[in-house]
Amino acid sequence: MLNIVIFGAPGSGKGTQSARLVEKYGLNHISTGDVLRAEIKNGTELGKTAKGYIDNGQLIPDALMIDILASVFDSFKDSKGVIFDGFPRTIAQAEALKTMLAERNQEVSVMLDLEVPEEELMTRLIKRGQESGRADDNEETIKKRLVVYHSQTAPLIDWYKKDGKYSHIKGVGTMDGIFADICAVIDKL
Ligand code: AMP
Which residues sit with their C-beta closer than 6 Å to ligand 1? Predict the structure, then answer.
């Protein structure tokens, strides 16, 4: 199985590139942000808890996220592989992912780090907020999310380098060009 962690700051293009990977390689896709937004839309207890964190640009507690991830992962049957989009976001989540996969005789195949300069992220997210109306894509919350990214999520770059899974992808340029760079990495696995 191909288990791909697609990584990067908010607005780095993880969702866009994941959709293309799903199509090209026939993979399953877990976007933890999408899962949480669906829970909010459906008015579930989990959604109510998640909303407070999301609207404030904060991360949902690790224990909750790890349970959600495992249950979505186990719902895939005869999967060719999975794209993890927006998970892990903390070292504790990366460790939990490694353990969860090991318990299923699997491992992360590669971590793709989509790197995009900060000003570009800001521009993209403000534009996305105007087009999609996503509540957390407003300037104040975006700034908080970027602070959270740098303090809690970016340390995963070194974590995956040490784990021998890290691959850098330049996240600016055309969508096709970025996708070609990603495919070149995957096709070598
Ligand atoms: P995303 O759609 O990936 O940008 O996620 C939107 C929001 O959902 C984040 O700002 C967090 O509040 C929450 N979220 C998504 N994935 C996670 C995760 N793995 N751990 C904690 N919070 C998450």
Answer: 10, 32-33, 36, 53-54, 58-60, 65, 86-87, 89, 93, 136, 145
Q: What would the two tokens of residue 180 be?
A: 């070609």
Query: Active-site residue numbers?
Result: 14, 89, 128, 134, 145
Task: Give the Å distance between the CA of 60 and the centre of ligand 1.
Answer: 7
Q: How far apart are the first and last CA of the chain?
A: 11
Q: Whose CA is nearest to atom 5 of ligand 1?
A: 33
pLDDT, tens digit, 9 for 90 and up, residues 14-67: 999 999 999 999 999 999 999 999 999 999 999 999 999 999 999 999 999 999
